[in-house]
Amino acid sequence: MSFDGKIDGDVRGEGALILGEPSVVNGNVEAVSAVVRGKVNGNIVAKEKLEIKGKSELFGDIRAAKLSIEEGVTFVGKAEINPNKIAPAAATHRGELPKSSEGPKPLGR
Question: Bridge partners of 94?
Fold first, then answer.
């Protein structure tokens, strides 16, 4: 699936997702694999591979089995890259990873 527009909401795909240069997504993205060339304000979960191409902007967290980021990308967020375990994004909200049931942990300990 290829997308080149603007959307305010989550994007979910069962296969490969390509966000073109003019694309703007204000929501979470979930796909088997994804190529980002536009702007995303939300979290991205790619079960197999995520590619973020030059001049893209991502403000959110990443979970992927494999990650490729080109020079020139703006990325503000956290990345969890683990080829063995990718959790579904159903519990995620824009800009936040799922909360642990253990409660907050003190920093530096």
Answer: none
DSSP symbols for the chain: -EE-SEEES-EE-SSEEEE-TT-EEES-EEEEEEEE-SEEES-EEEEEEEEE-TT-EEES-EEEEEEEE-TT-EEES-EEE-TT----STT-BTTBPPPPTT----TT-
Copy the structure tokens of residue 105: 């942990």
Residues 36-55: pLDDT tens digits? 999 999 999 999 999 999 99
Q: Could you tell me if 67 and 79 are in contact, meaning their C-beta atoms sit under 8 angstroms apart? A: yes
DSSP string of 6-18? EEES-EE-SSEEE
- Which pTM was predicted? 0.76
> Which regions of the chain are under pLDDT 50?
89-103, 105, 109
